[in-house]
Amino acid sequence: MLVLYIIYGFIGIILILLVIAFFLPGKYHIEKSLVIIQPVREVMARVADLNHYARWNPWQMMEPGSKMTIKGAPQTPGHEYWWKGKKIGEGRLILRSIDQKHVHFGLEFIRPWKSFANDNWLFEEWGNGETKVTWQNNGDLPYPMARLMGPYLIKNLNKQFEEGLRNLKKLCEGL
């Protein structure tokens, strides 16, 4: 009889978590900015050329031994960065479009769960030879696990975006 109560309790907890996940946001949006003491073209070049990605990206730096593959011409739509690692999972970043002040990437996560996001960058002249960089990322939080983990993920993403921008600043200003 006790086993039956434990099973019912376990099923009840799962059902409660599924209901909670249903009411949690299914999307997220992160936006961080930083001023870098370099001209727009120099900063954009470090973002739109994925050959520099591993030198400033906080996730790649978290697992430097992970596998990465870069395809396509830098700063050109179709330029891709593939990654695969134990800590950072598996996915790809693909340059969708670029103009004088924007770079737009598509972000596809394959593992630990499949999802898609938009990774957008804005570069504005700021002062004398400085660039204000704004990094935006938005996407879906798949039901149920990503929604349940959403608040934790968003908190960590905010910290990682700040770290990534600081790394980009160090890379660019070290030129």
Automatic annotation (TrEMBL):
InterPro entries: Polyketide_cyclase/dehydratase, START-like_dom_sf. The chain crosses the membrane at residues 6-24. It comes from the Bacteria. Keywords: Membrane, Transmembrane, Transmembrane helix. Signal peptide: none annotated. This is Polyketide cyclase. It comes from Paraflavitalea soli.
